[in-house]
């Protein structure tokens, strides 16, 4: 079931410039300085699967939002450098109030997280006072503070299945993930009509074009993708995978070629974790500008100057912690 009054526009990324017009530092120097500073500051670098290849190679841990949140929860490092986007660094800050959490470029936002606000959730809850609110991890800390549960694409189905059957569920903000959860659980959900501009733009035609070029390749489709419903119409038994699920599936499958239907950076992670197999990105244009704002240079500068510190007010932190802990407990 979809609540009609809420139809937020997916905002275009507010990216003024991707190329920084200044002399580039020598890469060897930057890498050795990152290593020195990482040791001196007792820092850990956590990188999302969609990060640039060189950033993934430099990180101490590469994973999806859930994996990164788990690493952030268990690390004994004093400084966490988040090679990801703002909501991920905020989640690390909620879990680690006594640590320094750095985001090397504050422009690294998320178009999906921008489709919902805390006030929007409060207004929505007022319409469904008996409902439980489940929000995707791709939300700001103040939105999480309004939620009962936080979920990732890896454990959303499990969490929604565990909720009482007679209670309305408000699921936000990704409408494609919500449709996947509704299909898998058979539950009627109230759905916030948000989406990610990168995943929404992937069309069934992109998938078909790659299938024509790579006959016999297995599809690895993320549930955030705009193409998922269209692709399922042709492949009704197709499983959708979180990015972590894609790694496990590629390891277990007999196929040797895969079409990776999500953000481009996932191919780097798959090539590293599953050597000897071929991974084809569904579209070269499926590239998140926000994720690519983190570079070796700004990681180095952030570690050097302890710049880009992310903090969350104590009131929001305390309220956001409960749904985040519920997310970490599952899957
Ligand atoms: S790929 Fe989409 S959901 Fe992920 S960070 Fe970029 S804008 Fe947000």
UniProtKB/TrEMBL annotation:
Keywords: 4Fe-4S, Cytoplasm, Iron, Iron-sulfur, Metal-binding, Pyridine nucleotide biosynthesis, Transferase. Pathway: Cofactor biosynthesis; NAD(+) biosynthesis; quinolinate from iminoaspartate: step 1/1. Its cofactor is [4Fe-4S] cluster. Binds 1 [4Fe-4S] cluster per subunit. Its main location: cytoplasm. [4Fe-4S] cluster binds at residues 110, 196, 288. Catalyzes the condensation of iminoaspartate with dihydroxyacetone phosphate to form quinolinate. This is Quinolinate synthase. The gene is nadA.
């Amino acid at each position: 079931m979809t609540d009609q009054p809420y139809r937020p526009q997916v905002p275009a990324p507010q990216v003024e410039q991707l190329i920084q017009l200044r002399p580039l530092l020598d890469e060897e120097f930057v890498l050795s300085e990152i290593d020195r500073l990482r040791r001196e500051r007792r820092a850990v670098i956590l990188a999302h699967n969609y990060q640039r290849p060189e950033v993934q190679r430099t990180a101490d841990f590469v994973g999806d939002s859930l994996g990164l949140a788990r690493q952030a929860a268990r690390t004994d490092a004093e400084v966490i450098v988040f090679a990801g986007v703002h909501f991920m660094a905020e989640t690390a800050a909620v879990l680690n109030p006594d640590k320094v959490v750095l985001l090397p470029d504050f422009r690294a936002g998320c178009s999906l997280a921008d489709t919902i606000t805390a006030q929007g959730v409060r207004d929505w809850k007022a319409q469904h006072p008996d409902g439980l609110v489940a929000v995707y991890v791709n939300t700001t800390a103040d939105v999480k503070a309004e939620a009962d549960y936080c979920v990732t694409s890896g454990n959303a189905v499990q969490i929604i299945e565990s909720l009482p059957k007679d209670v309305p569920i408000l699921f936000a903000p990704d409408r494609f993930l919500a449709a996947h959860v509704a299909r898998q659980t058979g539950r009627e959900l109230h759905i916030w009509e948000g989406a990610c501009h990168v995943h929404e733009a992937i069309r069934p035609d992109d998938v078909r074009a790659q299938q024509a070029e790579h006959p016999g390749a297995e599809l690895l489709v993320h549930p955030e993708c705009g193409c998922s419903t269209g692709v399922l119409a042709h492949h009704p038994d197709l499983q959708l995978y979180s990015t972590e699920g894609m790694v496990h599936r590629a390891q277990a499958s007999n196929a040797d070629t895969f079409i990776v239907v999500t953000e481009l950076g996932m191919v780097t992670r798959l090539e590293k974790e599953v050597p000897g197999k071929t991974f084809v990105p569904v579209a070269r244009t499926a590239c998140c500008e926000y994720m690519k704002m983190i570079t070796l240079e700004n990681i180095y500068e952030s570690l050097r100057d302890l710049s880009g510190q992310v903090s969350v007010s104590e009131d929001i932190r305390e309220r956001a912690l409960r749904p985040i802990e519920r997310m970490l407990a599952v899957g």
